[in-house]
Write a structure and sequence with these properties.
234 residues, alpha+beta
Length: 234
């Protein structure tokens, strides 16, 4: 399901750009793309895991222009009947769905990317989420399918991602990531902590679940001593 939803997101983004371009080229194509945009937008609003991130100022300005445009078209087309009124306002309706796919997307990614705690271990990067939204971003957005995911076993804690590209991680890298997952959890003060690890491709986020909640399989469980590894953040 997650991969299907990502494809909807990508298709919706491309359709949005084509819709804008076609408005200046071909009105019939523009209308067909408008239908597609509405359909994809409804699918995203119904099934997408995250809330649609819309900049409030931009959305407020758009809403004002949307209402103003409808009033203006109603006045102009009043004498020509309701069908003309609907046709005139079709583009305003389609354009509303541009905001489902385009507004606030880059801002959200930039905001999270700047706050993620990042460590470096023998050429690999270790990313650590420090709240549910960061955990969600790391696991569902930033991590690649062959990155390794770590989380303390059966306890609240951070999502930790070990990213070493297509290379096989070393024992030291695996040990370090597991120790970080143990440290950034409720088991920090224990002498030994169990930490589950699996590839990102085996981690799934159920539809409509809260940020940070995932299910996983094919895991390996490590028993480690919690360690912060401040020296690796430099």
């Amino acid at each position: 399901m997650r991969e299907i939803l990502k494809k909807i997101e990508l298709l919706g983004e491309y359709t949005s750009y084509l819709y804008i371009i076609s408005a200046f080229i071909n009105s019939k194509l523009n209308m067909k793309l408008g239908y597609l945009l509405v359909g994809l937008g409804i699918l995203k609003l119904l099934f997408w895991r995250e809330k649609v991130n819309i900049n409030k100022r931009v959305y407020g300005m758009f809403s004002f222009l949307f209402v103003l445009g409808i009033i203006s078209n109603f006045i102009v087309s009043k004498s020509n009947g309701i069908n003309v009124f609907i046709n005139e306002n079709g583009r305003f309706f389609y354009a509303a769905f541009l905001f489902v796919f385009l507004s606030g997307k880059d801002k959200l990614k930039k905001e999270f990317a700047q706050k993620i705690l990042t460590l470096h271990c023998d050429g690999a990067s270790i990313f650590i989420g420090r709240n549910n939204r960061q955990n969600d971003f790391l696991t569902t957005k930033k991590a690649k399918p062959f990155d390794y995911w770590f989380h303390v076993k059966n306890r609240p804690g951070s999502h930790v991602i070990l990213s070493c590209g297509q290379d096989e991680p070393t024992n030291k890298q695996l040990q370090t990531a597991a120790e970080c997952a143990a440290w950034y959890s409720t088991g920090r003060d224990d002498s030994k902590v169990e930490v589950d690890s699996t590839m990102i491709k085996h981690v799934k986020k159920p539809s409509h679940s809260v940020p940070g909640y995932v299910i996983f399989d094919h895991q390996t469980t490590y028993v480690v001593t919690p360690k912060k590894h401040d020296e690796l953040s430099k």
